Amino acid sequence: MQDDKWHDILDRVKEQFEIQMQETEPHSNIERGQVETVIFESPIGRIKLVRTTTPRVLDKKTIYSARAGSDMNVQYEYSKTEYVHDLKIFKWDDVRDDWVNARFEI
């Protein structure tokens, strides 16, 4: 999802619903990555949008030794200019008292 579409979604959510929380934080595992979270109340319940932005993976190298018991390591080479965006939608489940992956039919 491109930045302009993400901002359009945020604008629509802000117009129609009351935002309870909005934050941006660095990605926990990937340098130059970030995670944007928006929680709002809708007619179907509390909804959480999580947009993850990470650099595009250019190459993946597996480093290992053929000896028994040796460690294996994976090194990724990331793009300096291209990014990948992932959007996940969650709905609050009162029974489980946790966020569940929302499945909407279009």
3D architecture notes:
There is one protein chain. By secondary structure, the protein is mainly β. It has one domain (3-101). The chain is 13% helix and 59% strand. The protein is built from one helix and five strands; from the N terminus they run H-E-E-E-E-E. It has a five-stranded antiparallel beta sheet, with helices on one face. A hairpin with a 2-residue loop joins strand 2 and strand 3. The radius of gyration is 18 Å and the shape is elongated. The protein starts with a helix and ends in a 5-residue tail after the last strand. The mean pLDDT is 89.
Helix content: 10-25%
How can the largest sheet be summarized? Answer: 5 strands, antiparallel
Strands, total number = 5
Molecular shape: elongated
Strand residue percentage: over 45%
**Helix/strand-derived class?**
mainly beta
Oligomer: single chain
Widest sheet: strand ordering: 1-2-3-4-5
Number of helices, where a helix is a run of at least 4 consecutive DSSP H or I residues: 1
Number of structurally distinct domains: 1
